[in-house]
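Help!! Second protein's tokens look totally different from the first
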Amino acid sequence: MEVDQDNKPTGRWIVRNIVLAIIFFAALLIVTQLSLKAITRHNQVITVPDFTNLSVEDAKIVAKRHSIRTQVVDSVYVKRMEKGHVFSQNPAAGSQVKKDRCINLTINAHQTQMVKMPNLVGYSLRQAKTEILASGLTVGKLSYREDLATNNVLDQFIAGRYVAPGTEVEAESPVDLLLGLSHEESETYIPYLIGFTLPVARDNIFENSLNLGNVSYDETVHNYQDTLNAMVYQQNPAYRPGAPVKMGTTIHLKLTTSQVKIAAR
């Protein structure tokens, strides 16, 4: 067997160096992986909280608590919502993001949007509804008075007061309509509304010459987004096939996000 000058076996020296090399490269690999994790925050994700309905300042506080940031990028006008509060967000609540990620917020505009009142007198209920929505308003209460033509618009009101065509009014204001009602066409039918969202249920109610009454939500509805997703699980009066009711009858609704409740109906 060959030996070096110190009379040590050459083979042992080679093995020792191989072991040292393996240890060195293993340590280098570990350090590299730890460095990459520190730089990219690998596997360090944050669940995005729900900012909807919060003020911008409150949203910033919540974001800081979760080690993320927020910025307002757009605004919309929703009359039923608090001005300056968060309407929507991107990424959505529940998304997984990295630390310091900026969440884009769309808020409800601070300034009230104004639109012009259309002229609805002489229109049919269906035509009036189309004109109201196109003008940025909503359909309010339907009331009836004896007339030759059923569902012919006789007058238009907001908050109980006549509003002349061309008058500037607040967007999304409910427009109440006084409609004609003949003896021959004074009855309608209650539609089946279970499982519909509020906008769809509302359309069905007005299409049948009925009024939307009280709208309430159960304990599964926590924020504005939930109200958009909620569906009708109870209506009063209930759906009764073939049973006529007087036009203008009011229907009250209860909504939920629980599919179990909806399926039970």
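Here's the second one for comparison:
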Amino acid sequence: MSPVSLEKRSALLRDSEPPMSVMEFEAAIRAVGPERYHDLHPFHGLLHGGKLNKGQVQAWALNRYCYQSAVPRKDAALMSRVHDRELRREWMHRMLDHDGMPPDEPGGIERWLALTDGLGLDREYVISRRGALAATIFAVEAYVTFVREQPLTVAVASSLTELFAPKIHKERISGMLEGYDFIDDHVMSYFKRRLTQAPRDADFALKYVLENAKTRDEQDACVDAVRFKCNVLWVQQDALYNAYVAGNIPPGAFRPGV
């Protein structure tokens, strides 16, 4: 199966263009972040600026759990297609980073639940996803489907929003600790761990994509995959803003204080 660009240009135009150099290709990938990463979203500014109330922060943490819990499923879907044992070994630690290896390593999902626990949310309710926004669930499941169905190199490329993650984690740690008296170091442990995990993961995935996307069509599809992943993250912010800032909470979704 050949990679298919999500933002298609004409096949004739693509075929007429030579592959980008490695430097050009990497620059094209990195350029997506300043244009589309969700740190540009207004909801992000409110969250990190200490402008939300506790119920709005609860809504963010509850909905974001849906994404966190989908990450190891996404990685399992990718690994099920990998015949290269070395790649599987490398990718395996991503699942363990999130699912953990008890008793010594609780994992990222458990650290996220420490955050929702600290915010006063019922753990069973969070895990059930019953109160999550429909848009959140649609977005994260679209991501899992994308990784399962797209060509392997394109699927790997969709993880490259990790290139932009350390900046947002640093802002989140400092901004939320400073802005909210109901946030402490313990509940922010997820983000502190990702400061070292995300760069390691991004470095490996970037090297893999740069080495394995050979044609211009494949390269364009990989850049589009990073855009797609940014859209997955952005639409979650849109849904939170519309529901919990603009006040349009849909039926069945979490309602603060209820």
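Reply: Different proteins will give different token patterns, so don't panic. The domain at 11-245 is CATH 1.20.910.10 (Heme Oxygenase; Chain A).
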